[in-house]
Amino acid sequence: MIAPTLHAFLFGLTWLLYAIQSQPLLDGPSRWPFAAVFLGDFPISAVAFGVMFSSDTSAPYAIVAWGAIGTGWWYLLGRWMEEKQRR
Predict the structure, then answer these.
(1) What is the four-CA torsion angle of 9, 12, 17, 23, rounded to 10 degrees?
(2) Are 86 and 19 in contact (CB under 8 A)?
(3) Under a CB-based contact definition with an 8 Å cutoff, are residues 14 and 40 in contact?
(4) Which 3 state secondary structure label does DSSP give 25?
(5) pLDDT tens digits along 1-31
(6) Measured between alpha carbons, how far is residue 13 from residues 8, 54, 60, 71, 87 in Å?
(7) If 30 and its partner were Cys, which of 18, 59, 62, 76 is the partner (CB 3.0–4.6 Å)?
(8) What is the pLDDT of residues 26-82, one digit of tens each?
């Protein structure tokens, strides 16, 4: 399935680029994969992003939950689309 794989790749790329650069998340090279993931996961990403900036202790949990829930969501959407195409 392409959608969950792409989501996981872009999510991982965002945080990898953020970890190896000295620029903020939205100003450096990580801004493009971040924007794609943020818009693609909008309801989930808005909540996770809010938690990330309001609590330093909960931020890692929000990031992991965002990645897991978002990838799971795209997996379910992909399965649903494949099922619709088979009919």
Answers:
(1) 120
(2) no
(3) no
(4) coil
(5) 788 888 889 888 988 988 888 788 778 888 8
(6) 8, 23, 16, 14, 35
(7) 18
(8) 788 888 888 888 888 888 888 888 898 888 888 889 989 988 988 888 889 888 888
Q: Which residues of 33-51 are buried (b: 16+ CB within 10 A; e: fewer)?
A: bbebbbebbeebbeebbeb
Q: Are 52 and 44 in contact (CB under 8 A)?
A: no
Query: What angle separates helix 59-86 from helix 31-40, to the nearest 10 degrees?
Result: 60
> What single letter denotes the amino acid at residue 15?
W
Closest CA to 1 of 80, 84, 62: 80
Six-digit token string for 18: 């953020």
